[in-house]
Design goal:
alpha/beta; Rossmann fold; 8-stranded mixed β-sheet; 14 helices; 44% helix; hydrolase activity
């Protein structure tokens, strides 16, 4: 009798899995996406993560604990091919800068002595997931192609360490590196800060804080604002590739980083998280479609705020330029900008708007927008088992343009 129960249960599981595989294989993928079959499964993995996050949220369980982070990081590193970092002609070493762990990638093509053009890199992962170890293969590949010395900062992460702790780690490390430029062979006056996603947010905040010490900020699909969670790019990714660039997951990460209660998550997703006072302030103009976006990119309704307790939690931090770099009201003192935006990315519109604002302030070097690309595809640029031409192109453009900047 027992074997029949297990047989029925196993059969049901096989049917459900087969049905899900069928759904994934026949799911529409936006036009212009390379390797649609691979993207379907990457997106499916992200959708599954969304479900897990939502269920854990409903149960009141904090998912992002140390054991879970280890498992996620190991899986991400395996998928991205980061275990093969030592195959490249790179000298890699671990050290600390004022007690902040860093990992240094120095290409063997660099001179044996003297200063080297240097980039300080802050990895993505929603201020919560991933690590310098996960990014090692990508950063080794990046250093080899560009000839740059890349110093990756292993900052502390949310939710255990919320704003401003991760940023303080990044500032401490970057300031220490700048002050000890000779010890770290950093080319004077050419220090670059860079990052993708949440790392792009940190790079922008570091550039804002150390404006006269930084030569260039390289922002790859950066998270820049919590003012409006219903931009057209947030809406489009929710419909097209919600696993690869999830509006829900992005908002969840913003709350974790800001130390804001997850009880207020639904208000933020519905764009009801800010008070009318903030919505009608000068900061609203920084995310104004009519000023900074193409005419066909419609920005959302900025809905009326929720109750005072909710809006107060967000109002206290939403206009802080160190948390939301988009809210910087003086762009004239910022280092020059290299911005990368992708078509299928929830952060697309804010990246475009920020680049346009800096263009008007004459503080931009390049803004490159890639159609057919999605959030995170720069990590699939040719060093691991998954390679996308668009990811390779983004990295090649970065290498070429950054090197042309360095020689000017």
């Amino acid at each position: 009798m027992l074997w029949r129960t297990w047989f029925l249960f196993g059969s049901l599981c096989i049917i459900l899995v087969a049905a899900r595989v069928y759904v994934v294989l026949h799911r529409d993928v936006p036009a212009g996406i390379q390797h649609p079959d691979v993207v379907r499964w990457l997106d499916e993995a992200g959708r599954a993560a969304n479900v897990v996050v939502k269920v854990s949220h409903q149960l009141g369980v904090e998912l992002a604990t140390w054991p879970v982070k280890m498992v996620v990081n190991a899986a991400a590193r395996l998928i991205l091919g980061g275990f093969h970092e030592n195959l490249f002609n790179i000298t890699i070493r671990h050290t600390t800068v004022d007690n902040v762990p860093v990992k240094i990638f120095l290409p063997d093509s660099a001179p044996s002595t003297g200063p080297v053009p240097t980039m300080v890199y802050f990895h993505g992962g929603g201020w919560t997931w991933l690590s310098v170890g996960v990014y090692s293969g990508f950063l080794a590949h990046f250093a080899k192609l560009s000839g740059l010395q890349i110093i990756a900062v292993d900052y502390r992460k949310a939710p255990q360490y919320s704003f401003p702790v991760p940023l303080q780690d990044c500032l401490t490390a970057t300031t220490g590196l700048e002050k000890r430029a000779n010890d770290f062979r950093i080319l004077a006056g050419k220090l670059i800060v860079a990052g993708d996603g949440a790392g792009g947010n940190l790079a922008a905040a570091v550039a804002y804080s150390m404006n006269d010490k930084i030569a260039m900020q390289v922002l790859i699909n950066p998270a820049l604002q919590i003012f409006d969670f219903e931009t057209s790019s947030y809406k489009e990714t929710a419909e097209n590739l919600p696993g690869l660039s999830s509006a829900f997951r992005n908002v969840y990460h913003w709350l974790s980083y800001g130390g804001i209660s997850k009880d207020y998550l639904q208000f933020a997703i519905q764009n009801k998280h800010l008070s009318q006072k903030i919505r009608q302030s000068e900061f609203a103009s920084f995310v104004d479609r009519k000023l900074y976006l193409p005419e066909n990119k419609m920005v959302s309704r900025k809905r009326a705020g929720a109750n005072f307790i909710v809006t107060s939690a967000f109002d206290a931090i939403a206009t802080n330029a160190l948390y939301s770099p988009m809210m910087n009201d003086d762009l004239t003192r910022l280092p020059t900008l290299y911005m990368v935006t992708s078509q299928y990315d929830a952060y697309r519109d804010e990246g475009i708007m920020y680049a346009e604002r800096l263009r008007k302030a004459r503080a931009i070097f390049r803004h490159k927008h890639y159609t057919g690309s999605f959030h995170g595809d720069v990590l699939l640029s040719g060093y691991g088992p998954l390679t996308f031409d668009i990811g390779r192109l983004i990295l090649e453009d970065l290498n070429k343009d950054i090197n042309s900047y360095l020689v000017t």
